[in-house]
Design brief:
By secondary structure, the protein is α+β, with helices and mostly antiparallel strands. The chain has one domain. Helices cover 15% and strands 37% of the residues. The strands form two sheets. It has a three-stranded antiparallel beta sheet with strand order 1-2-3. Strand 4 and strand 5 form a beta hairpin. It is elongated.
Length: 82
């Protein structure tokens, strides 16, 4: 993943609106997913932490690696670089 953007789309006067996350992958594909405010808060916290975020478009899954320890594919010379 190269970019992660959060957009808030306003709802009606009585509605809370909706967040959309735009994920841009290394091959420049853009993926948009809707998310609750709570989910966006969590994603923002993970993005600001010492984690590596990866997007699996097939399963529509955001992967947060290195919460504790370091996965080899997230470092230079790791399995993903082979």
């Amino acid at each position: 993943m190269t970019n992660l953007n959060a957009n808030w789309v306003a709802g009606s006067d009585e509605g809370d609106g909706q967040f959309e996350l735009m994920i841009v992958t290394e091959d420049d594909q853009k993926h948009v997913v809707r998310a609750s405010a709570a989910a966006v808060s969590t994603v923002v916290a993970l993005a600001r932490a010492e984690t590596v975020l990866a997007w699996d478009p097939t399963n529509r899954t955001l992967i947060a690696a290195n919460l504790v320890g370091t996965m080899s594919w997230t470092t230079a010379g790791g399995a993903a670089d082979s």
